[in-house]
């Protein structure tokens, strides 16, 4: 019943690694669904557009009350997903919203700026300057979002259980690290559970 | 709720003939963000004459099925914006369950150039685009 939250930088291969890890683990990958459900639940479907418009192309300025209703809905939906377990939740401050929830692992995926610029330029066939602008806009958007709504710093290492730098790792290797981490935690959980049961049995025997 | 007319759905997989270059640009932005859209899929009657014929109608530019949201693009001209605002107010009276969002295209072109969407940005052409938008509003009014 484990849930993962993934916070990733644009161009870090974070989405690809999460997708692969979800495939291997048989977990549900939660990305846009969360935004759409929360926006509809808040009665403000345009908030789904605001949430994805990290380059600010759509020029949408929602009302503060609408923003708050949406963020409350995001938190509610996220807790519901974590309650079901076996899910990887990408972005939306999952690592902050589910910070104190047991059974949730928080992963951060990063890469050096210049490498991210090269990757985005290659992937979208755009100039390095444009790629850098996209990345800077995306980084700014994430930082502001976390600062404004959750008063946390994006790069605070204490918010994450596992940080992966993909400078020298492929998406598959990053996914493998995530899967290993989950499997190890699940194994430990099974072992602890087995030990507890064993202890309970011996106590019963002694008592008898 | 009054009866609405659903026109033939045109989805992102087959690019429709846009009435305005800004609409094509907007569709590119939606595609960039991976948002599914339909172009002018529905017409909402807003007013009727004494013979019960539709005298005014409104076809929002885009429908986003996953968000259940209609989008109407605006130009920079205040007169045109007022016209659309009035229609949207009327829509809210007649179809309160339908969500419509007015999106201004201010600065869209500059931003797209900055982020490497130059070819799409070229198609937002100042005066010509606004003329095209005016004629479209007149056409819709005649429905």
Question: What can you tell me about this protein's structure?
Answer:
The complex is a heterodimer of chains A (about 210) and B (about 140). Chain A is an alpha/beta fold and about 210 residues long. Helix content of chain A is about 60%, strand content about 10%. Chain A has eight helices and five strands, in the order βαβαααβαβααβα. Chain B is an alpha+beta fold. Chain B has a four-stranded mixed β-sheet with strand order 2-5-6-7. A three-stranded antiparallel β-sheet of chain B has the order 1-3-4. The radius of gyration of chain B is 15 Å and the shape is globular. Chain B starts with a strand and ends with a helix. The longest helix of chain B has 17 residues, at about 80-95. The interface between A and B is medium-sized, with 24 and 23 residues.
In brief:
Chain A has 208 residues and is an alpha/beta fold.
Q: Give the structural class of chain B.
A: alpha+beta
Report the principal-axis shape of chain B. Answer: globular
* CATH topology assignment of chain B: Endonuclease, Chain A
The total number of structural domains of chain B is 1
Query: Helix segment count of chain A?
Result: 8
CATH architecture of chain B: 3-Layer(aba) Sandwich
Low-confidence stretches of chain A: none
Q: Which H/E pattern describes the elements of chain B?
A: EHEEEEEHEHHH
- Computed Rg of chain A: 20 Å
Main beta-sheet strand count, sense and barrel state of chain B? 4 strands, mixed
Q: Per DSSP, what share of the residues of chain B sits in E-state strands of 2 or more residues?
A: 15-25%
Q: Spell out the helices and strands of chain A N to C.
A: EHEHHHEHEHHEH
What is the count of DSSP helices of chain B, taking H or I runs of 4+ residues?
A: 5
Beta strand count of chain B: 7
Count interface residues per chain for the largest interface.
A-B, 24 and 23 residues
Sum up the structure in keywords.
heterodimer; A: 208 residues; alpha/beta; 5-stranded parallel sheet; 8 helices; 61% helix; globular; B: 143 residues; alpha+beta; Endonuclease, Chain A; 4-stranded mixed sheet; 3-stranded antiparallel sheet; 5 helices; 7 strands
């Amino acid at each position: 019943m484990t849930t993962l939250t993934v916070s990733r930088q644009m161009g870090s291969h974070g989405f690809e690694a999460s997708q692969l890890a979800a495939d291997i683990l048989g977990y549900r990958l939660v990305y846009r669904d969360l935004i759409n459900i929360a926006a509809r639940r808040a009665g403000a479907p345009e908030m789904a557009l605001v949430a994805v418009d990290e380059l600010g192309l759509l020029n949408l300025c929602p009302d503060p009350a609408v923003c708050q209703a949406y963020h409350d809905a995001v938190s509610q939906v996220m807790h519901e997903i974590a309650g079901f377990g076996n899910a990887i939740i990408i972005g939306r401050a999952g690592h902050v919203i589910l910070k104190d929830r047991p059974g949730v692992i928080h992963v951060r995926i990063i890469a050096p700026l210049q490498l991210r610029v090269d990757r985005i330029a290659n992937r979208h066939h755009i100039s390095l300057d444009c790629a850098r602008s996209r990345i800077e806009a995306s980084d700014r958007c994430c930082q502001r979002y976390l600062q404004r709504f959750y008063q946390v710093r994006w790069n605070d290492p204490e918010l994450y259980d596992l940080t992966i730098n993909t400078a020298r790792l492929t998406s598959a290797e990053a996914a493998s690290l995530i899967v290993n981490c989950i499997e190890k935690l699940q194994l430990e959980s099974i072992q602890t559970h087995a030990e507890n049961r064993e202890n309970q049995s011996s106590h019963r025997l002694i008592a008898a | 709720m009054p009866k609405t007319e659903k026109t033939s759905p045109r989805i992102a997989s087959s690019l429709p003939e846009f009435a305005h270059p800004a609409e094509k640009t907007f569709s590119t932005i939606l595609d960039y963000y991976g948002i599914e859209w339909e172009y002018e899929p529905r017409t909402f009657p807003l007013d009727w004459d004494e013979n019960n014929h539709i005298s005014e109608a409104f076809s929002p530019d885009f429908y986003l099925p996953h968000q259940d949201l209609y989008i109407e693009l605006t130009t920079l001209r205040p007169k045109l914006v007022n016209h659309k605002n009035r229609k949207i107010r009327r829509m809210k009276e007649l179809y309160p369950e339908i969500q419509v969002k007015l999106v201004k295209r201010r600065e869209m072109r500059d931003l797209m150039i900055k982020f490497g969407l130059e070819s799409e940005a070229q198609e937002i052409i100042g005066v010509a685009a606004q003329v095209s938008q005016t004629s479209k509003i007149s056409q819709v009014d005649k429905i």
